[in-house]
């Protein structure tokens, strides 16, 4: 099969499409032929040699959707031909082997590209919001609120009844207002703008950007235990890290159903064919996103 690999750390240009042996599922696993794959900023950090450092040569990508085309001898729960979505390590290629525990059934009416965004981006957003348990009377700050994770964290936070403020570039402010989020530009003067917009203070911070947001939160007196981050700066600032850990099948199945039924919004910023993976990661790393960047197969 053809898979994405890189043999040196660096920008998107280090990615190559190479021929590799078909993966072999374990006794309780399945072979999935991909239809779509979600791209995430965490992919780019690893590819550039940041923590965690992947041994070289390495694959890339952690979330996908596709069709089961093979099964291990003891596999149960799915059948050949079932449509699924799931997660794993370095999954971007024509096929991937995955244990049953990291797969969930895709609703028939859910687009492949939407399903491929759930296992990392949407699951992370749901876990981040629930871990802080905001509610009516709370003010929540979501940074990069229109991005791949922030777009969903914003929706989950609004559902709690909390007041939600989201940082984003001005081009995405209209989108945030549609979600019920009060938009704010990031950059110089963020602390002053937050003080003016929320004079009674910020209760919870959901960070998807990094130092600027965390430092602003600390300057505004937000307790460290009420600051979540997925940006990798949790240790530096002694705040809470939130990230993907496996697959909560009950949670992602519920999310998939809500997306299919329209109770939760999805936005795909850009789709690229697998052959254009370098361009896809360049788009992801260019910033100012509104939603997900995905590959199609």
From TrEMBL:
It comes from the Bacteria. Keywords: NADP. InterPro entries: ADH-like_C, ADH-like_N, ER, GroES-like_sf, NAD(P)-bd_dom_sf, Zinc-ADH_QOR/CCCR. Residues 10-295 form the Enoyl reductase (ER) domain. This is NADP-dependent oxidoreductase. It comes from Protaetiibacter mangrovi. The lineage of its organism: Bacteria, Bacillati, Actinomycetota, Actinomycetes, Micrococcales.
């Amino acid at each position: 099969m053809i898979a994405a690999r890189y043999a040196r750390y660096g920008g998107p240009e280090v990615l190559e499409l190479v021929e590799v042996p078909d993966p072999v599922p374990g006794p309780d696993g399945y072979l999935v032929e991909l239809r779509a794959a979600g791209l995430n900023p965490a992919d780019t950090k690893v590819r550039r040699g940041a923590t965690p450092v992947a041994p070289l040569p390495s694959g890339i990508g952690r979330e996908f959707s596709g069709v089961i085309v093979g099964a291990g001898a003891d596999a149960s729960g799915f059948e050949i031909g079932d449509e699924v979505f799931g997660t794993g390590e370095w999954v971007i290629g024509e096929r991937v082997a995955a244990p049953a525990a990291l797969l969930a059934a895709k609703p028939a009416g859910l687009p492949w590209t939407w399903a491929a965004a759930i296992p990392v981006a949407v699951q992370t957003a749901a876990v981040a919001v629930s871990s802080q348990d905001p509610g009516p009377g709370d003010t929540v700050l979501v940074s990069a609120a229109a991005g791949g994770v922030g777009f969903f964290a914003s929706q989950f936070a609004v559902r709690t009844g909390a007041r939600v403020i989201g940082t984003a570039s001005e081009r995405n402010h209209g989108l945030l207002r549609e979600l019920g989020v009060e938009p704010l530009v990031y950059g110089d003067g963020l602390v002053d703008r937050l003080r003016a917009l929320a004079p009674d203070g910020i209760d919870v911070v959901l960070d998807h950007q990094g130092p600027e947001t965390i430092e602003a939160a600390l300057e505004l007196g937000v307790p460290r235990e009420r600051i979540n981050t997925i940006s990798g700066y949790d240790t530096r600032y002694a705040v809470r890290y939130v990230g993907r850990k496996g697959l909560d099948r009950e949670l992602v199945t519920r999310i998939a159903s809500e997306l299919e039924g329209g109770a939760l919004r999805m936005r795909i910023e850009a789709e690229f064919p697998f052959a254009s993976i370098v361009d896809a990661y360049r788009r992801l790393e260019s910033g100012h996103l509104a939603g997900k960047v995905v590959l199609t197969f």
